[in-house]
Amino acid sequence: MLTGNDHLRIRTKLVVAIFILIFIGLWGRLWYVQVIRHKELYKKAQKQYTTTKTTTSKRGEIFDTNANLLVGNIPCDDIIADPSITASNLHRCRQLSKLLAYYLKQDYNTVYAKLSRGSRTVTNKEGQKVPKKNRYAVIARKVPLKISSELKKIIHPKNKKGGFKGIFFKEVYKRYYPKGELLANILGFTNVDHGKAGIERLLDKKISSSKSKVRYERSRDGRLLAYGKNKEKKGHDGWDVFLTVSEPIQAILEEELEKLCAKWRPRAAYAIMADPKTGNILAIAQRPTFNPNDRRKMNPSSWRNRTSEDTFDPGSTMKPIAISGAIDAGIVKPYTRIDCEKGAWRYAGKVLHDSHPLDILTVREIVQQSSNIGTAKIALKMGKKLLNKTLRSFGFGSRTGIQLKVETRGLFTRLEKWDKLSITRFPIGQGISCSPLQLVRAYCGLANRGKIPKLRLIDRIKNPEKDHAVKMWAPKAKQIFRNTATWKTMIDMMVLVTQEGGTAKRAAIPGYHVAGKTGTSQKFIDGEYSHSQYFATFIGFVPAYKPAFVLLVTVDEPKGAIYGGTVSAPTFKNIAQRTLRYLDIKPNPKLLRDKR
Q: Residues near 502 by Cβ (< 8 Å), separated by ≥ 6?
């Protein structure tokens, strides 16, 4: 029989056993939590007492050669919502949706759908569909500060009259093009935060910025704890880009190109100005174009860069280039006489025509009056190999290497594939095609005493944090002519083109020698040359013997006239005359007296 002491001892042992079991259970639970689930729970705990603040740095800006701003950044806000908070009270959610829709000019139903979706369905590791809080929804991107500032005052939770919770404002930058359409096809534009076209796309990695991230421990009310473990990842602004383009000259070029398009209503038009010594592009424009600040009317046909991507038959602008090879080799001289067959000449079973009947002309007169037959006969004297070498040395059939994303090689058949007519058609700019930039490069060679420079569009890029600029390297210009007198002989002949008796009298500028050449080329459509669609071109340089620039004006399908001397030459004159005044290049007093 158990005594009272025995019962006490049993109860005591039972209590002790229970406590031991509880202790073992607690110890096991602690071990499971602290060891087995340590990483998982530590991450969850971190989310409760740590937060990350992200700051957006500025994308690099783009300037002209004199540091005039062409592309900049405007501070603004992204408006972000936490739907798990905004959806907790649907009445307040509707009020907030109306407010945001009104200020942001958005559809109410669209805003409400974002704010009221407090959770979403996701698939977990076990493959089960489970609800998850929806913590992030973009309401609007890059909202102007004027609008976002008003919304901040109204939405702020401490605003007793109308505060709302769950809306956040993130400081960002919006890309801005202060000059509108000016140089738009070269500058390009951005899509969200990355370059989509032009320089913006080409140098996207350099121009792009990186975000600053600060991860810190916070108190329950969100304040930074000074003694907490904080981590910071510094961001950086993008590199700034400086072009070779001069904004004032670019403005002149675009204004005159706009006038040309208003008068002749072409399908497209191009104008390019370059420094023949350095190859620097001083101005470059095309029509149609676009305003990168207004994305509603943009389409690929207007924002692609035609000056490097499009090709056309250069027509008679090729003649001085081909003839320079014959002059340099001593095959012909300026006063060598050529029979131009009175405007019609049969060769290899085909008849070649001049625009009007011409008899016997000197080489000078062939250039001045733009004789197809005379040029073709000079090419026959040269032979296929020399003609091919001459044209290729001026860069036809190869890219210019300009700093643009897409560039064509043009079309120039390999020598072994030439047919019998090639030798008479290529020197007059038929059956061979080039981009506007390729033709400008070739004429830089004529203007620069036979030295071909590499075309440059980007002068330097600069790190804004280190104040360090990297100059974009350019190779030394390559000499084409063997005879040192060739360049002057060619310029003497090209000056005649803009004088009395030449095809481009409308390109003449009082007080200056202007060297250049007209080109009127048929468009090649569906396997044959059109008799109704043309390119009208004038390209030249001024002052002829010490050129400040080479300038090309090409018009695609002008209406009302087709000749380069009629359509393009007057615009060349207007652009050149205004640019000479801007550069303060004085006229030659002797030429002004001779004119009188």
A: 368, 369, 496
